[in-house]
């Protein structure tokens, strides 16, 4: 019995040693962003690894925030893109999900299958012809061009349909008795009771929009339409690289998402679990 | 994915039909109208931004379309022949297959390990899970900045080289050298860091669905210790989760772009870029379409890549079984 318990303790010690070591490794990149964002250029490039900046400075961040820097404009563009996409994606997908789940129509399942079939073609692969469509609309170098093609998310339709199928019918029936049509039932009864699934899908959607790179790079070629990711990438790949500025920009771009992450973590976990059901 | 037959509302529906005009002489019932009203935004969007691009892409891929996005003249399969004959494109396909072969098992194993370790911890589950999960909030661009400019910057003072120095080893020019191709370590670790926590959450969800009684029953059957439990209970019951994680991870790997573009980008970090050594299909397509303005060639390449992804997905479905029914 003693031997058994000793082995159990040893196992726990080992488990926590491994967990703490892995956690430390996982946090290093964030630590580096923070350290370098508050360091002077000389300190970052100096020989020898130092754990803390000897003279922490706010200059890097101040330089980005004051005036009309591309990073600041990029943050604003990213905010606009991600917010509009968040709202419109949810609205469009929730409507379609409700129609597919609740409104009888003889070809309903066929339409659902057609929707799902579009998921078979990886979106990133069709970016060249999608660009052709955008160009036809005159949307190159506009935020509209970055935003609109990403609004039609079949995965969200799939989750919403599933959610509405499980929605208690008695509630909807009660609404019908009060004389509500499909639209009234949807807006007054179904939507107010769909907060959880909305936040879960919305948080994941916002993160994906904010972090998107290839499509904004293709459409927003002009500096005025750079999202923050494109702006940072341009700096990263330029010959005159401003290291402390780059890390300060990284900090500013990742901070809003970290905050969002901590506030909505429970929902984000839920959203990720939804993604697991996609395969 | 099952297509559950949608239960039609029994009493309410009939009551509605009674005092609502059915499919009358005008042909379209109000119900059908309502249905299309709800579906329309999505359906139109998919038509314009998914179906039209696919058709347009097909037309472009059999047309001469250089410096213009409107097809110029029909050239048959010339673009396909050209793109498949281009060693750079073939190289990119080989590269992405090798990348997938490395990153998929690594991610699978590592994220499962994280899920099991956190699950086994009696205290602090929440904290550890959060720490492993936060990289999900980070973009590939930001991670590329850190990996390229600090961790693996190739200077003796970079963190990776500092660790090597601690063990008395010579510093390595991680990104700037192709012989040996050390940049693989940079590319694999950055993606691993970014996505392991995400897949850990999916595995955790799978683990939580395994009933506790199974482990108790197994003890009676003589299954002892964590390793045997893993072998005989956990892994077999995680099968469906594993298959869907594998699929998500694989499709993601085939569309790799961000970290290759940013870490190996040609100009970055004082010319230490190495893009031609590691060009993924998407980087190739991006250059074909937006640097060389050859949209016909780019579209042909896109369809070759799509076909490759579909084939591999189907093979994987065959081998591992896609049916989610037990």
TrEMBL record, chain A:
<comment type="similarity">
    <text>Belongs to the binding-protein-dependent transport system permease family.</text>
</comment>
<keyword id="KW-0813">Transport</keyword>
<feature type="transmembrane region" description="Helical">
    <location>
        <begin position="12"/>
        <end position="33"/>
    </location>
</feature>
<feature type="transmembrane region" description="Helical">
    <location>
        <begin position="185"/>
        <end position="207"/>
    </location>
</feature>
<feature type="transmembrane region" description="Helical">
    <location>
        <begin position="241"/>
        <end position="264"/>
    </location>
</feature>
<dbReference type="GO" id="GO:0005886">
    <property type="term" value="C:plasma membrane"/>
</dbReference>
<dbReference type="Pfam" id="PF00528">
    <property type="entry name" value="BPD_transp_1"/>
</dbReference>
<protein>
    <submittedName>
        <fullName>Carbohydrate ABC transporter permease</fullName>
    </submittedName>
</protein>
<dbReference type="GO" id="GO:0055085">
    <property type="term" value="P:transmembrane transport"/>
</dbReference>
<feature type="domain" description="ABC transmembrane type-1">
    <location>
        <begin position="75"/>
        <end position="264"/>
    </location>
</feature>
<keyword id="KW-1003">Cell membrane</keyword>
<keyword id="KW-0812">Transmembrane</keyword>
<dbReference type="InterPro" id="IPR035906">
    <property type="entry name" value="MetI-like_sf"/>
</dbReference>
<feature type="transmembrane region" description="Helical">
    <location>
        <begin position="143"/>
        <end position="164"/>
    </location>
</feature>
<feature type="transmembrane region" description="Helical">
    <location>
        <begin position="110"/>
        <end position="137"/>
    </location>
</feature>
<dbReference type="InterPro" id="IPR000515">
    <property type="entry name" value="MetI-like"/>
</dbReference>
<feature type="transmembrane region" description="Helical">
    <location>
        <begin position="75"/>
        <end position="98"/>
    </location>
</feature>
<keyword id="KW-0472">Membrane</keyword>
<keyword id="KW-1133">Transmembrane helix</keyword>
From TrEMBL, chain B:
<keyword id="KW-0813">Transport</keyword>
<keyword id="KW-1133">Transmembrane helix</keyword>
<feature type="transmembrane region" description="Helical">
    <location>
        <begin position="237"/>
        <end position="257"/>
    </location>
</feature>
<feature type="domain" description="ABC transmembrane type-1">
    <location>
        <begin position="93"/>
        <end position="316"/>
    </location>
</feature>
<dbReference type="GO" id="GO:0005886">
    <property type="term" value="C:plasma membrane"/>
</dbReference>
<feature type="transmembrane region" description="Helical">
    <location>
        <begin position="295"/>
        <end position="315"/>
    </location>
</feature>
<feature type="transmembrane region" description="Helical">
    <location>
        <begin position="93"/>
        <end position="118"/>
    </location>
</feature>
<keyword id="KW-0472">Membrane</keyword>
<dbReference type="InterPro" id="IPR035906">
    <property type="entry name" value="MetI-like_sf"/>
</dbReference>
<feature type="transmembrane region" description="Helical">
    <location>
        <begin position="182"/>
        <end position="203"/>
    </location>
</feature>
<feature type="transmembrane region" description="Helical">
    <location>
        <begin position="33"/>
        <end position="59"/>
    </location>
</feature>
<keyword id="KW-0812">Transmembrane</keyword>
<protein>
    <submittedName>
        <fullName>Sugar ABC transporter permease</fullName>
    </submittedName>
</protein>
<keyword id="KW-1003">Cell membrane</keyword>
<feature type="transmembrane region" description="Helical">
    <location>
        <begin position="130"/>
        <end position="147"/>
    </location>
</feature>
<feature type="region of interest" description="Disordered">
    <location>
        <begin position="1"/>
        <end position="26"/>
    </location>
</feature>
<dbReference type="GO" id="GO:0055085">
    <property type="term" value="P:transmembrane transport"/>
</dbReference>
<dbReference type="Pfam" id="PF00528">
    <property type="entry name" value="BPD_transp_1"/>
</dbReference>
<dbReference type="InterPro" id="IPR051393">
    <property type="entry name" value="ABC_transporter_permease"/>
</dbReference>
<comment type="similarity">
    <text>Belongs to the binding-protein-dependent transport system permease family.</text>
</comment>
<dbReference type="InterPro" id="IPR000515">
    <property type="entry name" value="MetI-like"/>
</dbReference>
């Amino acid at each position: 019995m003693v031997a058994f318990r000793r082995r159990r303790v040893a196992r726990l010690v080992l488990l926590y040693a491994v967990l703490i070591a892995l956690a430390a490794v996982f946090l290093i990149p964030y630590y580096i962003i923070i350290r370098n964002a508050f360091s002077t250029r000389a300190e970052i490039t100096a020989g020898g690894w130092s754990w803390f900046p000897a003279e922490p400075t706010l200059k890097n961040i101040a330089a980005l925030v004051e005036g009309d820097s591309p990073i600041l404009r990029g943050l604003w563009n990213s905010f606009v893109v991600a917010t509009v996409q968040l709202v419109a994606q949810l609205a469009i997908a929730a409507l379609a999900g409700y129609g597919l789940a609740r409104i009888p129509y003889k070809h309903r399942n066929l339409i659902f299958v057609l929707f799902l079939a579009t998921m078979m073609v990886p979106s990133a692969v069709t970016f060249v012809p999608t660009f052709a469509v955008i160009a036809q609309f005159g949307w190159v170098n506009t935020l509209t061009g970055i935003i609109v093609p990403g609004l039609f998310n079949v995965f969200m339709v799939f989750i919403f349909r599933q959610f509405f199928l499980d929605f208690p019918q008695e509630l909807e029936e009660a609404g019908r008795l009060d004389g509500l049509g499909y639209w009234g039932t949807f807006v007054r009864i179904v939507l107010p009771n769909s907060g959880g699934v909305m936040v879960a899908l919305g948080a994941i959607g916002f993160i994906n929009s904010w972090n998107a790179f290839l499509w904004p790079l293709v459409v927003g070629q002009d500096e005025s339409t750079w999202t923050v990711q494109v702006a940072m990438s341009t700096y990263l790949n330029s010959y005159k690289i401003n290291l402390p500025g780059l890390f300060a920009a990284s900090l500013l771009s990742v901070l809003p998402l970290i905050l969002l992450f901590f506030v909505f973590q429970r929902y984000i976990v839920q959203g990720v679990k939804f993604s697991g059901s996609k395969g | 994915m099952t297509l559950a037959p949608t239960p039609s509302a029994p009493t309410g529906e009939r009551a509605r039909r009674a005092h609502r005009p059915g499919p009358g002489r005008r042909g379209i019932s109000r119900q059908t109208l309502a249905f299309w009203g709800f579906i329309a935004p999505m359906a139109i969007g998919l038509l314009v931004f998914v179906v039209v691009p696919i058709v347009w892409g097909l037309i472009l891929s059999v047309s001469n379309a250089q410096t213009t996005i409107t097809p110029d003249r029909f050239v048959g399969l010339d673009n396909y022949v050209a793109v498949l004959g281009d060693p750079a494109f073939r190289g990119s396909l080989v590269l992405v297959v090798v990348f997938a072969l490395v990153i998929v098992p690594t991610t699978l194993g590592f994220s499962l390990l994280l899920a099991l370790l956190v699950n086994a911890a009696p205290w602090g589950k929440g904290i550890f899970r959060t720490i492993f999960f936060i990289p999900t909030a980070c973009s590939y661009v930001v991670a590329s900045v850190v990996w390229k400019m600090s961790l693996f910057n190739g200077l003796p003072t970079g963190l990776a080289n500092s660790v090597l120095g601690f063990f008395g080893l010579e510093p390595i020019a991680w990104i700037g050298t192709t012989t040996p191709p050390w940049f693989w370590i940079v590319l694999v670790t950055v993606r691993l860091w970014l996505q392991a926590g995400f897949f850990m959450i999916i595995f955790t969800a799978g683990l939580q669905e395994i009933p506790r009684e199974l482990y108790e029953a197994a003890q009676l059957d003589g299954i002892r210790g964590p390793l045997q439990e893993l072998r005989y209970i956990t892994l077999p019951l995680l099968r469906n989760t594993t298959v869907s994680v594998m699929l998500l991870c694989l499709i993601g790997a085939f569309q790799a772009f961000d970290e290759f573009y940013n870490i190996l980008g040609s100009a970055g970090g004082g010319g230490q870029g190495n893009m031609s050594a590691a060009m993924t299909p998407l980087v190739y397509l991006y250059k074909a379409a937006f640097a060389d303005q050859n949209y016909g060639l780019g579209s042909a390449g896109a369809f070759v890549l799509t076909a490759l992804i579909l084939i591999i997905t189907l093979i994987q479905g065959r081998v591992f079984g896609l049916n989610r029914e037990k």
